Fold this protein.
Amino acid sequence: MIQMYHVDMRYAGGAFGLRDVSLHVERGEFVFLTGASGAGKTSLLRLLFAAEAPSAGQVLVSGRNLSRLSSSQVPQLRREIGVIFQDFKLLGERTVFENVAVTLEIAGASRREIRARVWSILKRLGLGHRLDHRPRALSGGEQQRVAIARALVNDPPLVLADEPTGNLDPDLARDIMDIIADAHARGTTVIVATHDPTLLERYRHRLLVLEGGALVQDNAPDSYPGSVRRAVSTSA
Amino acid sequence: MIDVRSLRRLGTSMRDGLRGLRQAPLVFLMSVSTMAAGLLMLSAYLLVVQNMRTVLETAGADLTLVAFLTPGEPDEAVVADLAARFGGIDSVDSVTFVSRERALSRLREDLGSEATILEDMRENPLPASFEIQLIPEARTPEGVRRVASRLAEADGVDDVRYGEAWVEGYARVLRALEWIGAGFGGCLMLVLAVIVAGTVRLAVYARSDEIQIQRLVGAGGLFVRLPFYLEGALQGATGAGTALLLLWLAFSSALPSAGEAVQLLLGRAAPSFFGVTEIIALILLGAGLGVGGSVLSLVYIEESP
Ligand SMILES: Nc1ncnc2c1ncn2[C@@H]1O[C@H](COP(=O)(O)OP(=O)(O)OP(=O)(O)O)[C@@H](O)[C@H]1O
Ligand SMILES: [Mg+2]
């Protein structure tokens, strides 16, 4: 699903987002991405949905070479990726329904399909009674779930989640992870960026550790008992 | 790639455009008013030019060229020869010979009771002449002048007359007005496009969050731009429609009281408003200006989130 070969990514000012990252993620995998603040988690995810371009190396997503993607091919790529943003990026003026529907509208789904799918996912996420509310009027956890619904409503083959449980209490965090695990169980490839060690300990998945933009560890799901805290704290 | 999904996307995108318009109706109204004011000037100008052109065409219709022969009784063979020659000119429709006697009797009729002044004359002072009518397509100042010079070249022709003075003067004024109109209209259209660009720019800022999110979930460039083109087109078309409505109101209410001034300008030609074609063209022009303005303001829209 994802292949990266010696990828560097620099921001306009010259700061490194990523340094010499090589990585393979298979279709259907669940991968945690961790590292201290500023380690490059968000940078890596942004690279994958073509919000940033690699400054060196090759990135392949679903067989597409991102350094050769023309700007007119970017939308098609993004329609195949569900992104859950660290800051949600919801539209405060639109209803919950409209916020979730945007994904399907842009995919060109029919009205009936949109209504059915949005309603069904919001109900599954416990927001069935919130359809006509504005995100402003929702709690942080509810907003987070709306953001997740928008990313998942289209059943994308790849889901990228940036701190999907950030600032949520443990119960809510578990709910959110269950929803994402659910999508994974249905065959979706998932990458979750987080620096929450309890999350990493509870759910056992492949774990990538970034440090200063470089990939410093790549742990198999069963090979890091007790190493998580060390991995995260050393890079912190 | 035209398929059902693309068409649905198109529909959603248009709906977004109308939504943007509902969110800031005041900005829209201001832009439409400015547009209407500008287009009102432009269309008023065009209306004057159109009517003046009609005058020129009507004037051309009863335009007769008169070729006076050299004084004295003309030779019959010469008359026949000239008649054939004039009739052979491309744009000539009809040739009528007016003998000296005929000319004198016409003059007598024209003078009516004053005709006694002709009694004193010992001989007919009038020359014989040919009256030449042109085919409709040739009734332009250039066409008339061309035929006139052909007539004057012929042996036996002394002088050629037509309503040259006023026809040419009028045509020159009209041409000048058309040029001024083109220049002034061009500037005006540029200004209007820039005004629309400003309004659309505001709309882009107002919707920048939405655009960013649409982009992130995979909206294409056209999907993002189309609502603004639509908004621009609507502004322009509404502005043009308003301008035409105002002009028509002015035209039909002010005209009766402005009779003399209009008569001075148009003579016997009846003033007329734009036809359906012109109205549609002006509304399309407004819409086009609106879209142009939107394009102008979206040139620098950010491609990436
Ligand atoms: N838009 C930007 N312009 C310049 N530098 C940036 C930009 N975004 C991130 N960086 C830099 O790139 C590096 C990696 O940042 P990134 O946001 O990927 O970290 P992160 O691991 O997601 O951190 P956090 O856990 O705080 O979200 C940091 O040094 C950061 O300062
Ligand atoms: Mg981050």
Q: What stands out?
A: Residues 179 and 214 of chain B are 47 Å apart (CA to CA). The mean pLDDT of chain B is 81. The radius of gyration of chain B is 31 Å. The pocket of magnesium ion (ligand 2) is lined by residues A 41-42, 86, 162 (CB under 6 Å).
